[in-house]
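sorry for the late reply, my laptop died twice this morning and i had to redo everyting from scratch. anyway the thing you sent over, i finally got around to it. pasting the sequence first so we're on the same page, its 124 residues, then the predicted structure underneath. double check i copied it right bc i was rushing
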Amino acid sequence: QVQLVESGGGLVQAGGSLRLSCAASGSTFSNYVMGWFRQAPGKEREFVAEISRNGGNTASTAYGDWVKGRFTISRDNTKNTVWLQMDNLKPEDTAVYYCAATLARWGTRQFNYWGLGTQVTVSS
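ok and here's the structure:
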C-alpha cells in the first residue's frame, strides 16, 4: 500500500504562490490516480485537483470549479512525486492540504490513501 508525505505548506501573502509536494512510497506510483484535497477549519473536506496515472503532457487533469485556473497539478512517475502549484493565493485558500491516491478508475474520486496534510495559510 502506498504511503504519502506532503510538504511545501507555509504562510504566504495574498497574491503569492506556493508549490506543494507529495512524495509516495511503498507501492508502484504509476498505478495510482493522484489527487489533492483541502479542509479549512469548520468546513468539510473539498476536492482540489486530480491527475491520471500517466505523467507528462498526456496526463488528464481535473480541478474543483472554484480553482479557476489558479492551481496546477502535475506528477513525475520517475520521482514518485505529485505537485500542486498554487498561484494568486487568496485568504480563503487557507486550509490543510492533503495528498491522496487511489487505484480506482480515473474520475471516480474514490481516494482511499491519504497523507497527513500540510498547512497553507494565506494572509490578507
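The two ends are 40 Å apart (CA to CA).
thats about all i looked at so far, will dig more tmrw
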